[in-house]
């Protein structure tokens, strides 16, 4: 096969099979010339490349870290959320995979069209609600008869949590997530056609002793306008031209007004600790530098200039005469 390197033993075995008639050289040539056929399921269209799936995974890894921080602060208990998989499947397949009774949060993400679905396993949802109500975080699955108060508490919690997706997506597009709907039965929720391709990001979630999954379902129609931006090539390219002028100008202006310490040294010397302890008011310390010698001016801790002392408007000053030659600080 092209590109495949055979070992000497494999070559000897192949030659032996050809010589004994176990293999036919003409048959091997015929197999190589035959067209390779790849099975493609039109009902399960793959509309995202592996590169784009990896980009979506990275985005939601950041989102999962933000959710971990948010829920840890809100619930004041151990919370761990991480991405376990990112798959593209038909919407109908996703709906069949979720429980018949679960927590479904629907969001709009303008300026993108369409809606995003966040499905939360009831074990996780009830553990969150129990913690917010002052409990230990126990999980009781009774989704089919949620009260209005329970519905309101859950929807408010997930609405605030989903706001962090704005920060996770900020490198790709600025979105403004809006909470749209709360549902418990996936059969009553028809966001797109059954055969529409969706990306499902599964987040493994642990809250206290409860564990379960949070699934984020993003239809292809939502991502279609920004698909080119999901490639690593786009992230690596210098499309920074659109944002470079403003960012570089801001960076330069901030650096220019930053304050740094400048020290002019009159000289230095070494004395013993005993002499240091015996120093008193009026004592004179002899420096290792003559009064006519130039002074070293340090920027931070780096020797940068050579100067001479003087006065300006009755104030002590130092005039810069030259740069320090050699060393790490030269012309930096």
Automatic annotation (TrEMBL):
Chief site of localization: other
SUPFAM superfamilies hit by this protein: CheC-like (SSF103039), Surface presentation of antigens (SPOA) (SSF101801)
Recorded superkingdom: Bacteria
UniProt keyword terms in alphabetical order: Bacterial flagellum, Cell membrane, Cell projection, Chemotaxis, Cilium, Flagellar rotation, Flagellum, Membrane
The keyword Cell membrane belongs to this UniProt entry's keyword annotation: yes
Domain Flagellar motor switch protein FliN-like C-terminal: 255-324
Membrane topology category: Peripheral membrane protein
Cellular compartment(s): Bacterial flagellum basal body; Cell membrane
CDD domains for the chain: FliM
Xref: InterPro entries: CheC-like_sf (IPR028976), Flag_FliM (IPR001689), FliN-like_C (IPR001543), SpoA-like_sf (IPR036429)
Name of a matching Pfam family: FliM
NCBIfam families (UniProt xref): fliM_switch
Sequence similarity: Belongs to the FliM family.
PANTHER family: FLAGELLAR MOTOR SWITCH PROTEIN FLIM, YOP PROTEINS TRANSLOCATION PROTEIN Q
Protein name in UniProt: Flagellar motor switch protein FliM
């Amino acid at each position: 096969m092209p590109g495949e390197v055979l070992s000497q033993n494999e070559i000897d075995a192949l030659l032996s099979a050809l010589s004994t008639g176990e293999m036919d050289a003409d048959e091997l040539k015929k197999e190589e010339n035959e067209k390779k056929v790849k099975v493609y399921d039109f009902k399960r269209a793959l509309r995202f490349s592996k590169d784009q799936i990896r980009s979506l995974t990275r985005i939601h890894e950041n989102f999962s870290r933000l959710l971990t921080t948010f829920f840890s602060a809100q619930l004041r208990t151990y919370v761990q959320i991480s991405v376990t998989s990112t798959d593209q499947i038909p919407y109908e397949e996703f709906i069949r995979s979720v429980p018949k009774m679960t927590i479904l949060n629907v969001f709009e993400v303008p300026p993108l069209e369409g809606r995003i679905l966040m499905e939360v396993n009831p074990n996780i949802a009830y553990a969150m609600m129990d913690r917010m109500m002052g409990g230990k975080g126990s999980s009781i699955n009774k989704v089919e008869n949620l009260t209005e108060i329970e519905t309101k508490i859950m929807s408010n919690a997930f609405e605030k949590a989903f706001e962090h997706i704005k920060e996770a997506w900020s490198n790709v597009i600025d979105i403004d997530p809006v909470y749209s709907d709360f549902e418990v039965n996936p059969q009553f929720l028809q966001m797109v056609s059954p055969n529409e391709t969706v990306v499902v990001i599964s987040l493994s979630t642990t809250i206290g002793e409860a564990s379960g999954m949070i699934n984020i379902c993003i239809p292809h129609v939502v991502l279609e306008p920004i698909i080119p931006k999901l490639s690593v090539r786009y992230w690596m390219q210098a499309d920074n031209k659109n944002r470079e002028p403003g960012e570089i100008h801001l960076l330069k202006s901030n650096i220019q007004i930053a304050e740094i310490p400048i020290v002019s040294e009159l000289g230095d010397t070494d004395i013993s600790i005993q002499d240091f302890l015996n120093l008193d008011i009026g004592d004179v310390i002899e420096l290792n530098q003559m009064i006519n010698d130039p002074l070293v001016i340090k920027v931070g801790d780096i020797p940068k200039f050579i100067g001479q002392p003087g006065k300006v408007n009755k104030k002590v000053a130092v005039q810069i005469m030259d740069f320090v030659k050699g060393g790490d600080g030269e012309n930096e």
